[in-house]
Amino acid sequence: MIRVAIVGLGWAGQRQLEAAGELGRKIAVTCLVDPDGDHLQGVTAPAGTERLTDYSAALADPKIDAVSICTPHNHHAPMAVAAAEAGKHVLVEKPMALTVAEADQMLAAAAANNVQLYVAENASYTPRARFLRTVVTEERLIGPLTAAAVTAGFRAPNFGYPGRRAWLTDPAHGGTGTWMLHGVHTVAELRYILGEVK
After folding, report:
1. What is the three-class DSSP state of 174?
2. From CA 24, how far away is CA 198, in angstroms rounded?
3. What is the pLDDT of residues 129-185, one digit of tens each?
4. CB burial class (10 A; 0-12, 13-18, 19+) of residue 178?
5. Cα(87)–Cα(82) distance, rounded to whole angstroms?
6. Which of 52, 75, 118, 188 could lock 123 by a disulfide, CB 3.0 to 4.6 Å apart?
7. Domains of the chain
8. Comparing C-alpha atoms, which of 196, 169, 191, 190 is closest to residue 180?
């Protein structure tokens, strides 16, 4: 069983906590980490789940095998590098990082410390994406594909996500509005359906 600390208990972190409960004996969320202690205490979790406001304390805990980073985007790279250096496997919410240099640092830290690093990007797992990939690769229903276009929008930061969402449009916290929130999914899905960019 993999023992996981979920870091950042906003919308994404709470969805991961719910999903972990559906995986049964494969993983166990043993620790929740969020700098807002009041918010952290209000999160529903299995009895016995440790709650910390200090990320470094979670990294120092030998009973934690992996961390799931669900924080504002500007924290992804430094938190992932610190986790890898502490010998923890890392699942990081999309986007992986804010720059290619940060992503390279994350990959190097994971390789140097022999830990797994994975980006939680779910677009390729949808039935729609799998169907479209089959249609495109087998040229069923349509001929060779020559172009693709996508239209997307952005919901106000608090629409459907009450509470701590203002950072989504604040560049100081890695928020860029629709591009990093939705555009990352769009690009990942297009790469999955059409193949890697050449």
Report:
1. coil
2. 40
3. 999 999 888 877 787 778 888 776 666 555 544 556 666 666 666 666 667 777 788
4. middle
5. 9
6. 188
7. 2-120 (3.40.50.720), 123-194 (no CATH)
8. 169
